[in-house]
Amino acid sequence: DEVGQVGQVIMKSYAKGLNLNEDYFHSISKGRFTSTFIKYPPTQGEKIGIGEHSDYGFLTLIDQDDVGGLQCKTLGGDWIDVTPVPGSFAVNIGDTLEGWSKCGDFKQEGSLRSTPHRVINKSTERSRLSIAF
Questions:
Q1: How far apart are CA 39 and CA 25, in angstroms?
Q2: DSSP 8-state code for residue 68
Q3: Long-range contacts, stretch 79-85, CB < 8 angstroms, 24+ apart
Q4: Dihedral sign for Cα atoms in the order 110, 17, 53, 8
Q5: What is the pLDDT of residues 56-82, one digit of tens each?
Q6: 94 closest CA partner among 53, 52, 131
Q7: Considering the entire predicted model, what is its pTM?
């Protein structure tokens, strides 16, 4: 419930940034959320745990452990590490939000972009654990 409340605050911020009523996305999402627990086993060297992709949903909040490995792709095509910060979430815009920002009430084509990302577990001793919400 608390993570859902964080998501609602972020959704309100996106709505305000697009000059919409702050509850615009809540009325569409109806407060539906899912979470996934993901484990990437230790590797021998640098191996991709999951290749480049974007999330199909609206918004993803990622609680990651201190192993790291999450990387986001910049507009220039470079990969940058998303350093885990205790007590925080990494936030990805999903394909659905990108699509909504290109049509309908928004009329601001391309104002929001889905986040291409991947995971590389560089640890040879520890699994990487994350929760995607």
A1: 30
A2: -
A3: 79/118, 82/117
A4: negative
A5: 888 899 998 888 889 999 989 999 999
A6: 53
A7: 0.82
